[in-house]
Design brief:
alpha/beta, Purple Acid Phosphatase, chain A, domain 2, 5-stranded mixed beta sheet
């Protein structure tokens, strides 16, 4: 089976307990362990960013060991709070050095699950009225990364895209992203990032032929949701 969940927000070493954000996050690590009870060693789970509060790979080691010990293979992508991230190659080297053998990285590439392509990127949010030049550069860069991932999916019968930021949020649409999703005939787009009151602004269901899903951990009750 293929599963997905986002926003684990682990903090075994960083000292940032999530219950300060409300009862929805109380005891979230035991709840994650319980939620992953549906996943077997033969399954794959995509983790859509905001994995750990660690500000370096070393600070995040215990968090990644926790992820590595979860059942099955994990494919990760970065979120806006993944301060440990520098480059994919450095992360891969770190995982190898510490024998974290069940974690792969989705970054300018794609993976195949049978005939289905697993594509994605972090994404970005750019308010068309208030966005800065930096925001516009970031969304353009993320669109390039997404297209690189989608091009790597050539030959796939179906394409699933996984992101951290929502391509649609309330009435806002990140056209640089949604145009790619539609032109490459993406089946579903799975995203996290939204919590608390922001969940009310989530766009779900079919838009432009793409089925959008919110998969923040607190929204899912800390249980990965089945994709395939």
């Amino acid at each position: 089976m293929l599963y997905v969940i986002g926003d684990l927000h682990l903090s075994f070493e960083a000292g940032k307990p999530m219950d300060v954000f409300g009862d929805a996050w109380k005891d979230h690590v035991p709840r994650l362990l319980e939620g992953f009870g549906v996943v077997t060693g033969e399954d794959v789970t995509v983790l859509c960013g905001d994995l750990t509060w660690g500000i370096s790979m070393e600070d995040s080691l215990e968090d990644f060991r926790f992820i590595d010990e979860l059942p099955g293979k994990k494919i990760i992508l970065k979120g806006n709070h993944d301060y440990w991230w520098s480059t994919a190659s450095k992360a891969k080297k770190f995982f190898e050095e510490h024998e974290l053998n069940t974690i792969d990285i989705l970054n300018n590439n794609c993976f195949f699950y049978g005939d289905t392509a697993i594509c994605g990127t972090r994404g970005w949010f750019c308010d068309p009225m208030k966005g800065t030049d930096h925001d516009r550069k970031m969304i353009a860069r993320e669109a390039m990364r997404l297209e690189a991932s989608l091009k790597a999916a050539e030959g796939a019968e179906k394409i699933q895209v996984f992101m951290h930021y929502p391509p649609r949020f309330g009435t806002y649409i990140m056209r640089e992203i949604t145009d790619l999703l539609e032109s490459y005939r993406v089946s579903d787009c799975w995203y996290g990032h939204l919590h608390g009151p922001g969940i009310k602004m989530a766009v779900t269901g079919v838009r432009g032929g793409v089925d959008y899903h919110l998969i923040s951990a607190d929204y899912l009750g800390f249980k990965p949701v089945k994709v395939l």
